[in-house]
Amino acid sequence: MNDLEMFREELAHCDDKLLDALMERYTIIEKIMVYKEQYGMPILQPAQEEKQKRQMLKKLHSNKHREEIYDVFESIMRNSKKIQARKLFDYNIVLIGFMGAGKSTISDYLSAMFAMDVVEMDQVIAEREEMSISDIFETYGEEYFRTRETELLIEMQARQNVIVSCGGGVAMRERNVEEMKKNGRVVLLKAAPETILNRVKDSDERPLLNGHKNVEYIENLMEARRDKYEAAADIIVHTDNKTVLQICEELIQKLLEMDGEYV
Ligand SMILES: Nc1ncnc2c1ncn2[C@@H]1O[C@H](COP(=O)(O)OP(=O)(O)O)[C@@H](O)[C@H]1O
Ligand SMILES: O=C(O)C1=C[C@@H](OP(=O)(O)O)[C@@H](O)[C@H](O)C1
Ligand SMILES: [Mg+2]
């Protein structure tokens, strides 16, 4: 055997070890999930993730390939999250609620924690129409926009394990609610009108609120929409005075309860 053949054999041996370690790692991930569920522990533990990363960087700090190795490690972590997400949710998570309730914010956080794709409905529609939501309303009117929303929800039925961040008015159409429920669990995020005002006051991206940024207007519109939001919801999460992490954890626990995980 010449040297090259020997190196190749060593490499194959090394890859075998990596494969074995990865398979073992993913089995451990599943065990951790079961343990957390069994003991009603928080599923999201961002501090633990940070600790793991710090330890890894410390070990690597003098290695000349640290960037490349760390990149692989990040990919392993991302795929662990995917495995977790697929185990927890074999459906789409559809976030609904009033403007400023936190649909986009919560979607982004969940997406980072579970490596799940997010479909931000407003953004997708704005990209497809090549204009802002405000301009779509002004040019074609609200009905036109709502129909684009319906089409997008139907498209989402072909996907799985996606977070769908709805625009605030999506659940106003009965048809939309029917479509989102076909392979999604519907999460209603709520907040008091004062909280909403506080969150949206500096943004002009919500045409329905422009010129009406006051508690009374928000309260009235919220009240007018309340029954439809609640009828659409599989679970409700109140967001006032809670951190994004607290909201996400509550959301996950309620989704798990729906599946009877803790009974
Ligand atoms: N739980 C929260 N605590 C504090 N600020 C929040 C919270 N959730 C959302 N926000 C802020 O409120 C604003 C509106 O949130 P966003 O996610 O865009 O709402 P939506 O998509 O429902 O309209 C954003 O500036 C966001 O940072
Ligand atoms: O409540 C609504 O009817 C709307 C909410 C907005 O989305 P956000 O809820 O993300 O602000 C956006 O879709 C559009 O301005 C209409
Ligand atoms: Mg939004």
Give an account of the 3D structure.
With 263 residues, the protein is of the alpha/beta class. The protein folds into 2 domains: 3-88, Chorismate Mutase Domain, subunit A (Up-down Bundle), CATH 1.20.59.10; 92-258, 3-Layer(aba) Sandwich (Rossmann fold), CATH 3.40.50.300. The chain is built from 11 helices and 5 strands. A 5-stranded parallel β-sheet has the order 2-3-1-4-5, with helices on both faces. The relative contact order is 0.12. Bound molecules: adenosine-5'-diphosphate, shikimate-3-phosphate and magnesium ion. Residues 97, 99-105, 168, 199, 239, 242, 244, 247 line the site of adenosine-5'-diphosphate.
Per DSSP E runs of 2 or more residues, the count of β-strands stands at 5
Percent range for β-strand residues: 5-15%
What's the CATH architecture of the largest domain? 3-Layer(aba) Sandwich
Structural class: alpha/beta
The CATH topology assignment of the largest domain is Rossmann fold
Radius of gyration over C-alpha positions, nearest whole angstrom:
23 Å
How far the N terminus sits from the C terminus, by CA atoms, comes to 61 Å
Family: Belongs to the shikimate kinase family.
GO molecular function: chorismate mutase activity
Binding site for substrate: 122, 146, 168, 225
Cofactor: Mg(2+)
